[in-house]
């Protein structure tokens, strides 16, 4: 039993101490907290789309505000990443490149196509609340769910310490502020 737990711990980690592991994982851990929040926001907007927002005490305008908040949070997050974080990471990690082959930028574009559709629908329903359609809302959200959730997980995986240490020193990683 102790032999197997020993072998687990030696194969599990390439860090010399728990403290070092935490330092290498700081970026990924912070990103994960943001991303888990975005997933909860998306799932709430999806769940309440059928009109159950009213049972939670939300009017249609307030529900639409929730959807717009999610849109704004994701847009702001991606703008900050693309301006301040990806350019540093892209020096050594091609998946963060802002060229056509940059996987994360491509995902951001896919997500934002979906968010633009959502924005159009929110504007339409704000002007004409009677036209609100639960099916149309869920269809719109389903249209970018996969690219969004895949990206949120993949970006965190790329920012885990074990990934970063293939490309950067710990000092370089700790100089990246998010
Ligand atoms: Fe992110
Ligand atoms: Fe991102």
From TrEMBL:
Organism: Crucibulum laeve
Protein name listed in UniProt: Hemerythrin HHE cation binding domain-containing protein
Residue ranges occupied by any Hemerythrin-like domain in the UniProt entry: 29-155
PANTHER family linked: EXPRESSED PROTEIN, HEMERYTHRIN-LIKE DOMAIN-CONTAINING PROTEIN
Highest taxon above the source species: Eukaryota
Gene3D superfamilies: nmb1532 protein domain like
Entry-linked InterPro entries: Dimeric_xanthone_biosynth (IPR053206), Hemerythrin-like (IPR012312)
Membrane-spanning parts: none
